[in-house]
Amino acid sequence: MAVTSVVIWCLAYILGLMATAFPWGGAAVLGCATIAAFVVPRIKPGYFPAKIWLIAGVIGVLASFYLPLRSPQPSAHDVSRFATDARQEMTVYGQVEELPRLTRSGKSQVWLAVSGVASIDETVDGKLYVTMPPVMAKDLYPGAAIALTGSLYKPKPALNPGGFDFQKYLAQEESFAGFKATTVERLEPTQKPSWGLWMVQQRIIKSQADRLGSPEGALLSAMVLGGRVVNVPFEVKDAFTKIGLSHALAASGFQVSLILGVVLALTRRFPKLVQVCFGATGLIIFLGLAGVQPAVLRAVFMGFAILIGVAADKQVKPIGSLLLSVTILLFIYPTWIWNLGFQLSVLATLGLLVTVPILTKWLDWLPSAIAPPFAVPIAAYIWTLPLQLYAFGIVSPYSILVNVIVTPLISILSIGGFISAILALASESIGSYAAWLFYYPTHWLIAIVIFFCKLPGNSVALGTISSVLTLALYGLICLPWLQPRCQRWWGLILLVGISLVFIPASYARANLLQVSAIATNRDPILIIQDGGRVGLVNTGDAATASSTVLPFLQKQGVNQIDWAIAANPSNPNGWATLLDTLPIKALYDLSDANQPALNPQAMRSLEKQHSQYVQLTENIALGSVAVRPLSLNPTIVQFQIGPQRWLWLKDVPTDQTESEVDLQGNQILWWSGKALPPTLLKTLSPKSAIAYAQVSSRTYNQLQRIGTSVYRTAQTGAIQWTPKLGFKATLESGEADAALL
């Protein structure tokens, strides 16, 4: 009874933390517990007394208050108070907290603990996300006192549905402002410390990279220290993520289980105290090398629970150990309840504990040595798939197969990397030669991942699913575990799960008419979803295509673009980036024939896909969407989308163009925000206007005077229109991406 009570209270605490995602969530937990206190004792007298449920309800309510209290908030002296919407030049002083890391844009990023701001006498503190050219960061190390001159700015929330929420990311790191440094000055004293965890980590990374080179050395180091510490090349990191092997680049439970397994196997002839001491030493060394990370701490806590069981000569209940470890960690770090990496780690571990035995039983027709390698990745995949669909909307059909193939390599490299890391602490050269022994396994692992990434259909966008559907899928997954009688109906359960994902989504996409004006603050990008057909107007530069356009399309479940219009020859690289991931059936070029909007690489991709490429000079019908180029120089295009007529002014019309082109009868104006002549505005008289860049204040006031609703994507985020709901702004609708569990 005592154990059951603890389990119920731990679950109540976790549910109370999760309930903060909803208004009055804590009260809902208390209400459910009160109902359980009244109903359960009458169903099973003598079991689960009412007081257990009432205590659970109180714990849930307290947890819902505890999380906001522990959530990071800027202090009264935080440097973010001086940040405004416009970047401002200033000089800040502080100490470097971590080693510089390379960003995807090629900049170096460091965390700075602020101690003061030039020309401000009052106390200033806080933590800054600082970016700078790599040459300026090469001599920085944790503890270095520096002065930075540059621009302070506010982080932006997710401006597009499902986009990256930079503001939320910084808040999780207890930072509330960013800083773009242009100069760095070292302050006295500048003596380098003689010891530090970062020095140990760098010694290991250098030792393993000396003989292995790149990217093999970085990959081996990431398996020991975690991807946050090691700068793994982004092309390798992206390939592992796309194929469902991102866990291989993170120090987590897999490495802990291997370390404990090897240590306990080598010390099995020794007394239990010796086994526990060696096991605890291995866990402490692993935690020290990898640092405090959610997945690492969770795994180490479970490892110590196993060692306690060994010391007490009792078999530890793995699920209870997992629940207790998670509860303790969430009490220390309650905000980890929203950490996606922590969530996936816990779910994958739970899948290994409860589903692997079931799958192994179903796979009993395979040899006993082969069944577990198949069961482990399948179980982890099943338990993490709903959360992945909720967060990303993408699945990899090859994930299970690749996990089965590379599991032996990952096991060898995890143990080998850990041993070479220990040797590197004694001697860099010895550690380097030890790491060199694992060159071919590391090289083969990378080659296998890249091979599968190049196969057709390496990733499929299903679209993100709702929180209700996510919970329903986890309910189905739990059935064979909670009700063993349901295991015989696994085929039906699988069919129901697939139907819940595909049927509603397919029906919704087949009947969807939606226009999305993407927020980029510089590039005109429009996405039109019309009954299963998808159209794209422009894609921006390569960075915009990869970080804004592609994530939006993938989370909408788009695997192919039916038609696209290119009209921006100044950013031709975006189309090449997009075509590397998504095929385009037909592309219409609005640019001059002598200066096409696509570069040679994009043209080759179109030819390889056998796509249609046409200079857009005449009216075309694209499903139920009609496109009419009114003028090519200046560029003016009209879209008939359902009942609405949209007018795109890429350029401001000249007087001659106004006289030659009929600009009346357009309900929606989509333009750059540049100043428009009052006579033109009177002629247009749109009901709504969307600006994809900074808006001229004079034009904004004139539009408001004539009764036009003006939307500015730089302030409100992406604007989406549907016939039923009309216009909806991303920031106003609160669609910032968040994890469910």
Could you please describe the fold and organization of this structure?
The protein has 741 residues and is of the alpha/beta class. The chain has 4 domains: 69 residues, no CATH class; 111 residues, Beta Barrel (OB fold (Dihydrolipoamide Acetyltransferase, E2P)), CATH 2.40.50; 187 residues, no CATH class; 221 residues, 4-Layer Sandwich (Metallo-beta-lactamase, Chain A). 49% of the residues lie in helices and 17% in strands. It has 28 helices and 23 strands. The strands form 4 sheets. Strands 14-13-12-11-10-9-22-23 form an 8-stranded mixed β-sheet. Strands 15-16-17-18-19-20-21 form a 7-stranded mixed β-sheet. The protein has a 5-stranded mixed β-barrel with strand order 1-3-4-6-5. Strand 20, helix 26 and strand 21 form a beta-alpha-beta unit. Helix 11 crosses helix 12, helix 15 crosses helix 16 and helix 16 packs antiparallel against helix 18. The two termini are 28 Å apart.
Strand content: 15-25%
- Determine the N-to-C terminus distance: 28 Å
Write down the CATH topology of the largest domain.
Answer: Metallo-beta-lactamase, Chain A
Quantity of strands, as a count: 23
Features:
eight-stranded mixed sheet; single chain; seven-stranded mixed sheet; 741 residues; OB fold (Dihydrolipoamide Acetyltransferase, E2P); 23 strands; 4 domains; alpha/beta; disordered C terminus
Quickly describe the structure.
With 741 residues, the protein is of the alpha/beta class.
Topology:
Blueprint: H1 2-18, H2 25-43, H3 50-70, E1 88-96, E2 101-102, E3 108-117, E4 127-132, H4 134-137, E5 145-153, H5 166-172, E6 177-186, H6 197-212, H7 216-225, H8 234-242, H9 253-266, H10 272-290, H11 294-311, H12 318-332, H13 340-354, H14 356-362, H15 371-391, E7 394-395, H16 399-426, H17 428-436, H18 439-453, E8 460-461, H19 467-482, H20 490-510, E9 513-517, E10 526-530, E11 533-537, H21 542-555, E12 561-566, H22 573-579, E13 584-589, H23 600-608, E14 612-615, E15 620-622, E16 625-632, E17 635-641, E18 644-649, H24 655-660, E19 668-671, H25 678-684, E20 688-691, H26 697-705, E21 709-712, H27 713-716, E22 719-722, E23 726-729, H28 730-733
Parallel strand pairs: 4-6, 11-12, 12-13, 13-14, 18-19, 19-20, 20-21
Antiparallel strand pairs: 1-3, 1-5, 2-3, 3-4, 5-6, 7-8, 9-10, 9-22, 10-11, 15-16, 16-17, 17-18, 22-23
Helix pairs in contact: 1-3, 1-12, 2-3, 6-7, 6-16, 6-17, 7-16, 7-18, 8-18, 9-10, 9-11, 10-11, 11-12, 12-13, 13-15, 14-15, 15-16, 15-19, 16-17, 16-18, 19-20, 21-22, 22-23
